[in-house]
Specification:
2 copies of one chain form a homodimer.
Chain A: E1 7-12, H1 15-25, E2 38-42, E3 47-52, H2 53-59, E4 66-68, E5 72-78, H3 81-93, E6 97-104, E7 110-115, E8 121-126
């Protein structure tokens, strides 16, 4: 089995609100293959998808009920502590909820968290050990 | 904000069991920067990380309690219906739980789901509209 994730799909409660968040707060552009039911954002090598939570559960043949911590985070890394601070301010003025203010963390990095409309956690981080390539 | 996910981190209940799953069922190789507390698998353009669920929640400053559907899926796409069938059989004989048998789906593809030890849902899919590039 090749080492590949093609899509990370978020099952969202309000697709319109989520699209607004990713397009107008994050400022991302949807991929052409998006349609009114599912929206894709092209990353480097794979896609983030937004799809209705009920439909996603149905597709996977599981119950859609669930609450609390979802057991995952998404990290968006930048290349300096200053870039973390700047991005958090950029998001804050657009009304994005900052869950953890930028701070040095035990593993040697500098990190913060914001939440999307479903409470999905995005870490905005600088990792001095990660190469920008 | 650039269109990028650097890490997709799963907060897992039993790190040893999860590492066993990804290394010995999926057959993936951990990245060198892994350590005893966090394991990374390099994808094309980003990483999947495994980290203790409690620690991940703590890092994000949220309560770790949570149950039910986590509101996300990960898709591993392959390039034909036969490849879906073959990969599902490969995983099934290794003891991986098949949640949905391979079948044609309404959007024109062919898809199935398996679960990891935390119930994280992996779609194994063929999408005839997706280019292999």
């Amino acid at each position: 089995m090749e080492q590949r994730i093609t899509f990370f799909t978020l099952g969202v409660k309000d697709l319109t609100a989520s699209i607004d968040f990713y397009e107008n707060k994050f400022g991302w552009k949807r991929a052409e293959m998006s349609n009114e039911n599912i929206v894709f954002f092209e990353l480097s090598g794979n896609y983030l998808s937004l799809y209705a939570r009920e439909e996603l559960a149905k597709d996977a043949t599981v119950d859609s009920a669930g609450e609390g911590f979802k057991g995952f985070t998404l990290a968006h890394n930048v290349w300096s502590e200053q870039e973390v601070d700047d991005l958090i301010e950029y998001l804050r003025v657009r009304g994005v909820k900052v869950m953890k203010e930028p701070q040095k963390v035990f593993w040697g990095g500098y990190s913060s968290y914001v939440a999307d409309p479903d409470g999905n956690l995005w870490e905005i981080a600088y990792n001095p050990y990660l190469k920008n390539d």
